[in-house]
Amino acid sequence: MTTSQSQPQTAETRTARQPSTEQLRDRVARELERARARTTALTDAVDDHDLTRQHSRLMSPLVWDLAHIGNQEELWLVRDVGGREPVRTDVDELYDAFKHARSVRPELPLLAPGEARGYVSEVRNKVFDVLERTPLEGRRLVDNAFAFGMIVQHEQQHDETMLATHQLRTGDPVLHAPAPPAAPAGMLPAEVLVPGGPFVMGTSTEAWALDNERPGHTAHTEPFFLDTTPVTNAEYAAFVEAGGYDEERWWSGAGWAHRVSASLVAPRFWQRDGSGWARTAFGRTEPLHPAQPVVHVCFYEAEAYARWAGKRLPTEAEWEKAARFDPATGLSRRYPWGEEEPAEQHANLGQRHLSPAPVGAYPAGASALGVHQLVGDVWEWTSTDLHPYPGFEAFPYREYSEVFFGPAHKVLRGGSFGTDPSAVRATFRNWDLPVRRQIFAGFRCARDAKPGELS
Description:
By secondary structure, the protein is α+β, with helices and mostly antiparallel strands. The chain folds into 2 domains: 21-168, Four Helix Bundle (Hemerythrin (Met), subunit A), CATH 1.20.120; 178-233 and 303-453, Alpha-Beta Complex (paralog of FGE (formylglycine-generating enzyme)). It has 9 helices and 16 strands. Helix 3 packs parallel to helix 4 (113-133). The longest helix has 24 residues, at 21-44. The two termini are 23 Å apart.
């Protein structure tokens, strides 16, 4: 991939007219309430013992996430945007994610469940007053309600983290949701040709886009083929049954070392079920659904499968081009399907279901090039390290993105069934260590286009 800050040869789709201040306040209020309803559902689903205990050393106790949500809201909206007196300063260090690793957070003098609930409620009441009285213009932090949108996304991101903690929890099921929709009849092509050439990657127009999504810039890809849908459980099971975890040739050096040291033999939460496989999800163990995207695989597993299949993982630029580029207009869309905000027919988002949907289940969400389920279902590993875009500027604080830049973290794209629509768009960038499997991550494969395949 090459990038340039020169005049783009293609353009980012422009957003609709700006809402009025009152419309913007109404939107912020709705999004804040919707996020809090989800937080409440995730924390009220378990008793105080489950709220305070650590279900995995990879994750915080649920009660830490709850109070951290309130603390970040207080720091940014009550103190900074609103200029109000602190609700309480004694908890700032406890809920600073950079001060204490997840593994040691249970040892801290955390707020008890009742106290944590009271704290986040008091903060929220002050936030609504700040929202009502603050001009949503004149300062970068509040223009277009950016700080409020940042906090909405922060809470929803922690809600997805808490959902992942629920997946690691043992005991009877406490979360419930209907099954995802079935896929329509008919076969989809195995892969789609994505043309080479320039496109606008990232955004300079999305009001609530975070710093690592900015600025919009021209990127270039060579022609390539991308899988129409994410790799399914059935496809991945074929790799397992073919001895994919036993043959070093499919793995990178780092990947093989991790496979051996971690004793990986299959995706996390898979277990043998007679001659087949079952998967445990949120306290329920059921036969593996063959048509659902594989989930809970690390980057190294995705990379090994792709090599076994004669393909590779897409780069981040390739993924975004397949998701956004409209060859009919030369524009980069907000979402694969266009400019419309995500709705139920477009993607499996927002914890409406507790699993990925079968591939092909959201035809209305396909991209202009015909690639399906790029948003929702599973985060998709790419081969790209997290890096800044040309012209990147840390805002409003370095610790959101800048401290993670470098070869340690791989970029994931697209969101999962646990990602809220407010916290994902076609420019949204997620990242994690390549060994992580507790996240709702899957992948799809790509391959270079050969000259004879371009006609």
